[in-house]
Description:
Blueprint: E1 10-13, E2 40-46, E3 56-63, E4 66-73, H1 79-84, H2 88-93, H3 95-102, H4 104-117, E5 128-135, H5 136-146, E6 169-176, H6 186-201, E7 204-205, E8 214-215, E9 218-219, E10 226-227, H7 231-235, H8 238-258
Antiparallel strand pairs: 1-2, 2-3, 3-4, 4-6, 5-6, 7-10, 8-9
Amino acid sequence: MPYQDSAHAEDADVASVELRGLQPRCDGPQLHPFAHRRAKIKFVKRLSDPDHQGEGHVFQVDIARKTYALKIFHFYNDKSAVEDLVGPDLDAIGLDLLHAHLDPFYNECRAFGKLIESNLNGHVAVRCHGYTTIPAELVHQIGNRFQVDDWIKDAEEHQDYQLPLHRQIFRATVKDLIPEDVPLTHMRVKRMRRDLLRIREQGVYPMDIKASNYRGALLVDLSSAKTEPHFWFDMCSWWDYERTIDEDLVEFDKMVEEAAVKTWVVAFTKRYTRKLRPRDGVRKKYTK
């Protein structure tokens, strides 16, 4: 993942605005606030690829005398999700649950929350230290310094959205900084496959397996993850459910193949696909 160095660093006092308590506020796994969320943040450099629009931007930061990777998320636009769920389905699910299960920030909160519950935090994926919030005015300053101005994803398609400075806070997750990447080898691929299977055993499906989402052979991005319980799993067909949970394994094998690693390791085999649960009547939970 390319770095963009900065000749300056910036201190931030983020005590004035913050989410509170475990997030998201729905059934299922949740993520706790970062322990030092009231401390000043020194932004050192940008870590995320400036040419790739993901779900946010990642920075190397110093907080309370420690170095972390801070991912500041784009604002979530639910327009496409709402258009896909119209009528009775949307009415039954509700916007609050839809946001809790589809917003990339909440996706990471739920996924890392589950790994923390399972005592796997830092073992099968990068260690997450919780979430925090950043004032909009500070994000504007950071954007100027690091040439970041796309805080609303696909903003050109959603010009009715308010500008970031009109919003109160930006949301972020705090993770270990893995300073150096490593080349894929047979042993690393073997470990990465094992870690992915353990993540999936917890009911967490990353849904975005690719080389750029790994660092030091650990998965660092779970912003696309579907974590059980999830309304989509409870409403989809057998076929869609099976295809969805298989996607991570297929993409893992594709990633290894593209890296030209000499290995016999294969992720997508029916032997390792999670057993599908019975789905009779699953729509009852979300239909009237």
